[in-house]
Every structure is written in C-alpha cells, then in structure tokens.
Amino acid sequence: MSTIIGIIPARYASTRLPGKPLIMIGGKTMIQRVYEQAKKVTELDEVYVATDDARIADAVKNFGGHAILTSPYHQSGTDRCSEVLKKLNKQVDVVINIQGDEPFIDPAQIALVASCFNDASVNIASLIKKLDKESEVQNPNTVKAVINSLGNALYFSRSPIPYRRNPEAHITYYKHIGIYGYRPQTLIDLTRLPQGAIEKAESLEQLRWLENGYDIRLKETNMETISIDTPDDLMKAEAYVKANKE
C-alpha cells in the first residue's frame, strides 16, 4: 500500500495580495479552504502546509491542521515541498504539491494526479484541461501544454502551441493546471537542477525538468480551477461562495 502525502506551499509575501493565505473567503481563510479540500481526498494519508511565516503556521494549527515552517528563501513551491519531505524523515511513496491559492480545488483532481503513480514508470505527474476560448489560448497567463502519444508532456509555453500554420488544421489546445505529483527522490533531485535558458525565458519551472530529460505524465481533467491572484479574483471567489452556499 503506497503512502501518499499532500503538501500545500503557502508563502506570506505576495505582490498583489500580501498575506494571501490568510485572506478570508466566506468566513474562512484561503489556506483553510485549500486544506479542507485536500483532506477530502481518501488517497492522501496526510496533508501538510509548508509555510515561511509563523502567522500562517499558527492559523493552520488553530483550525486543526498540520503546518511545517520552511525557509523564506525558496524560489518555488517545489523547493518548499522538498524541505518538508526531508523534515518529515518518514517513508513516503508519492508527494502531491497542491496549490495554496486554489480554495475550491476539486478533491477528484488531486486523486487524479495520485492515480498516475499506479504506473511504476511515472516519476512526475500533473493535469491539463482543454481550452475552449481563443482568448485563453492567446493569454500568456494561461500556460499551454503539448503532449505526446504516451501522455507525457512535450513542452509548456505561455505562447499558443502548437502554432497553427495551416488554418484548416484542427488543433486541440490544452491548459496546464499547476498541481504536481512526484516520487520522493525525484522531488529532491529536481531541486538540485540549475535553471536553464528556456525556464528563464518562459518563467516556468517545469521546463527545467523537461530540459534535463524528465518525463511529466499529464492526465486530462474537465474541471476548472479558480486561482486567487488579484483583488478581482477575490471578489469572484466571494461571489462563488455565496452562489454555492456551501
């Protein structure tokens, strides 16, 4: 029986929404909402919040969650997850990195990432979703993915890929959803890789992994995610809570 843990990186600093994990949405902090969604996933044996700030750690402990303080100098959530894995010092078979700014993430999406590791050849996994709107295809904030016949990523880009030179060609565009699963040793190894040119150009850390020969298995989901990055996103989240009345 595999041991699978979920780790939610939660950084206090945010240019547009300082203290973002502690922002209230419908009477609960954002980090509590993410944590509660993750706890619904039966495939996860435990869920931890990885944070660089004692205020977030205290808030997590106050609602009964597990929080681990990590270095404030990490460049990515992947690095923060790796530190938590080392601190836990326990047998783990799969680590799921759950975005800390998606308060309504569907537990089924987390379970879908976990299911990728039923294949022993998979070391990294993530999700994609079909794009229906041309505006999203053209939006550089929407990361696009191209996959091969084995279901592994060929490339990720902020540009529309593949380029449609033939206007009659039927192309399905996919959005990358930034939830990751890793084998423990792979997670540790990824944090030791130097940044490459394509990662720096696109500002996408998963390109470092591809550039160094790692395969990333991608599973398709039809569920949308709601990320909170701006005050406008926060207003939409509040409206979502009211509309669904939980």
**End-to-end C-alpha gap:** 33 Å
CATH class: Alpha Beta
Chain-averaged pLDDT? 94
Ranges where pLDDT stays below 50 over 5 or more residues in a row are none
Radius of gyration: 18 Å
Largest sheet: 9 strands, mixed
CATH architecture: Alpha-Beta Complex
Q: What is the fold named in CATH at topology level?
A: Spore Coat Polysaccharide Biosynthesis Protein SpsA, Chain A
What gross morphology would you assign?
globular
Secondary-structure element sequence? EEEHEHEHEHEHEEEHHHEH
Task: Return the domain count.
Answer: 1
Alpha-beta content class: alpha/beta
Number of helices: 9
In percent, how much strand structure appears in the residues?
15-25%
What is the number of strand segments?
11
The CATH homologous superfamily is called: Spore Coat Polysaccharide Biosynthesis Protein SpsA, Chain A
Estimate percent helicity. Answer: 25-40%
